[in-house]
């Protein structure tokens, strides 16, 4: 097959959707398919077997500006542009990931050109949380354009049941929705497994991997959680990896207790074919438990990275997290909103690490359904059956 993938946001901006597009596109090529990934901005990716194509910034910005600000439809410009692309490449399927306003306009154009269109929403493009001002759909113009284009989409792939509920709430026929989760390259994890594992019975080693966002990712809680652990005499080291996480160094408690933290601004993928980078995987292996403080997740790619690395997860019982994490099975869900309950569970774990060891087999069983090879083959079957 010849497959076109359109990604609303791509590297160098890190994120779960970007990881999924990159890994899946590489795997599709590995399985013998031709893949072009269409982008709105240049990328720094070097480890791609797929081809990257920049969508004309001038044309996309022009069509966007007139539609968004003036409500004038210049889609005929897109039709001329994409008609040439289709004539040359003859794609079997167009797969849109992480939808933005421009993507919706392109979907409208491609449907006029009789193209087959599959969409995977990844969170911010579908979910809404007014408390933390989260979601593109808070923009009425985006919401209107989304609703206008729902019927132009042939199939929706939902990465989690919470996302399926959001799709159904838009009036989408359930028969047009297929569950296909995010994935992890389990083979890569297994090749690295155990190489750097450091056993330290006296220290609780925490890890969090997420870009800095104080509300959505819960980074405004890090200092409070750490101080409570410190006040309760917990001997811990907290590794925090993600774009702009150096901002945490300005926090008073963190600044005064740098030995309790290992804050890494970001780890790129260098020339490795599949994400995450080996250095990040080793950080997972050197940790005891994954700490999630996010308020909302569509899926949580770092959850399956952690689980594949043998780490139980502690999290509030929040959207997205509670689909992967099962309390006292592969992690710990704090059903209250109490930060004290959250910290008390960490204290309990620190005092009895057997609570973590008892989850190892369950972690192995959990991760099987998220294997990159397995899910990519399922995706190929879906494409063939449209």
CATH class of the largest domain: Alpha Beta
Question: What is the helix content?
Answer: 40-55%
Please give the count of helices: 16
Q: Could you give me the name of the CATH homologous superfamily of the largest domain? A: Glycogen Phosphorylase B
**Gap between N and C termini, in Å?**
12 Å
Average pLDDT, rounded to a whole number, is 94
Count the domains.
2
3D shape: globular
Using DSSP, what is the number of strands? 13
Q: At CATH's second level, what is the architecture of the largest domain?
A: 3-Layer(aba) Sandwich
Order of secondary-structure elements: EHEEHHEHEHEHEHEHEHEHEHEHEHHHH
Strand percentage: 15-25%
The name of the CATH topology of the largest domain is Rossmann fold
**Main beta sheet, described?**
7 strands, parallel
Structural class: alpha/beta
Low-confidence stretches: none
Oligomer: single chain
Rg: 22 Å
């Amino acid at each position: 097959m010849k497959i076109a993938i359109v990604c609303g946001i791509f590297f160098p901006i890190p994120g779960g959707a970007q990881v999924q597009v990159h890994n899946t596109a590489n795997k599709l090529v590995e399985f013998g398919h031709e893949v072009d990934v269409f982008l709105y901005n240049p990328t720094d990716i070097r480890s791609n077997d797929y081809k990257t194509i920049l969508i004309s910034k001038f044309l996309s910005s022009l069509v966007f500006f007139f539609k968004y600000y003036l409500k004038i439809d210049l889609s005929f410009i897109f039709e001329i542009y994409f008609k040439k692309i289709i004539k040359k490449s003859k794609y079997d399927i167009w797969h849109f990931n992480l939808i933005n306003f421009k993507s919706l306009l392109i979907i409208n154009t491609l449907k006029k050109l009789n193209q087959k269109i599959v969409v995977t929403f990844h969170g911010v493009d579908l979910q809404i949380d007014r408390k933390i001002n989260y979601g593109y759909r808070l923009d009425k113009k985006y919401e209107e354009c989304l609703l206008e284009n729902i019927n132009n989409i042939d199939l929706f792939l939902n990465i989690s049941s919470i996302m399926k509920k959001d799709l159904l709430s838009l009036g989408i026929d359930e028969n047009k929705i297929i569950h296909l989760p995010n994935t992890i390259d389990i083979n890569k994890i297994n090749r690295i497994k155990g190489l750097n594992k450091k056993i330290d019975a006296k220290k609780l080693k925490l890890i969090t991997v997420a870009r800095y966002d104080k509300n959505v990712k819960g980074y405004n809680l890090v200092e409070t959680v750490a101080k409570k652990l410190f006040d309760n005499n917990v001997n811990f080291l907290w590794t925090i990896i993600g774009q702009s996480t150096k901002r945490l160094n300005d926090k008073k408690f963190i600044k005064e207790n740098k030995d309790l933290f290992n804050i890494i601004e970001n780890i790129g993928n260098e020339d490795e074919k599949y994400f995450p980078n080996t250095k990040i995987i080793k950080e997972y292996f050197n940790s005891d438990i994954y700490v999630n403080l996010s308020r909302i997740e569509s899926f949580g790619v770092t959850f399956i990275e952690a689980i594949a690395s043998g780490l139980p997860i502690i999290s509030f019982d929040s959207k997205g997290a509670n689909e992967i994490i099962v309390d006292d099975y592969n992690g710990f869900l704090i059903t209250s909103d109490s930060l004290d309950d959250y910290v008390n569970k960490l204290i309990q774990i620190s005092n009895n690490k057997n609570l973590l060891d008892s989850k190892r087999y369950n972690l192995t069983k959990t991760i099987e359904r998220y294997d990159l090879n397995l899910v990519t083959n399922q995706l190929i079957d879906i494409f063939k059956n449209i």
